[in-house]
Amino acid sequence: DSGVTQTPKHLITATGQRVTLRCSPRSGDLSVYWYQQSLDQGLQFLIQYYNGEERAKGNILERFSAQQFPDLHSELNLSSLELGDSALYFCASSVGGRGLRGYTFGSGTRLTVV
Amino acid sequence: AQSVTQLGSHVSVSEGALVLLRCNYSSSVPPYLFWYVQYPNQGLQLLLKYTTGATLVKGINGFEAEFKKSETSFHLTKPSAHMSDAAEYFCAVSRSGSEKLVFGKGTKLTVNP
User: Is A57 helix (H, G, I), strand (E, B) or coil?
Assistant: First the structure.
């Protein structure tokens, strides 16, 4: 157990729907990062939050949004889902805002859009 | 912008043989370099990292990597492969002071008995 908790582990939903993925960072970590892993794109950085504020943005679609709450857990919202959104979504956390000690990853949420 | 190239999407070795996974990076500033391992149906686990100081970095499970600035490389090695090393390995780079990790496409390591 890495200490980073992601729920749910698996999600199957239909095109056009909206889903919310949840991440609880490791105790003491202030930063949360979201990554999408797919066979064709590999690991793509989506977004980072540090202590409740957006810190960095990557290749995140406008249909996707995220937030980090006062208790530091984070949610990634995916809407108007398309077949191509099927992927593994990872959350990672780090102590500081710079991730220099490396991230701790959760075990991921596998999203299947049918 | 930083980028990472991992040579060989698949590497196959015999148990007991040397493991060498190649990683070359591109960075306009001194990089921070990482290797992660991903076992099937699991998240990524940090193997080792280079930030500053000694260029030969030792990690977990007997792996090590050497930062070679002149070659812009950070290859991962292990003297003797074990069956339990079979997994996918990712090299990643971060600009010093930057938050974002940029990952390579990954190398899947197969260990044959």
Answer: strand
| Cβ burial B45-77 (10 Å sphere, 16+ → b, else e) | bbbbbbbeeeeebebeeebbbebeeeeebbbbe
pLDDT at A102: 72
Chain B residues near residue A102 by CB distance under 8 angstroms = 34, 46, 49
Q: Which position has the higher pLDDT, B98 or A8?
A: A8
Q: Which residues of A touch B46 (CB under 8 A)?
A: 102-104
Q: Rounded distance, CA B62 to CA A69, Å?
A: 39
**Could you report the per-residue pLDDT of B82-98, keeping only the tens digit for each?**
999 999 999 999 876 55
8 Å CB contact of A102 and B34 = yes
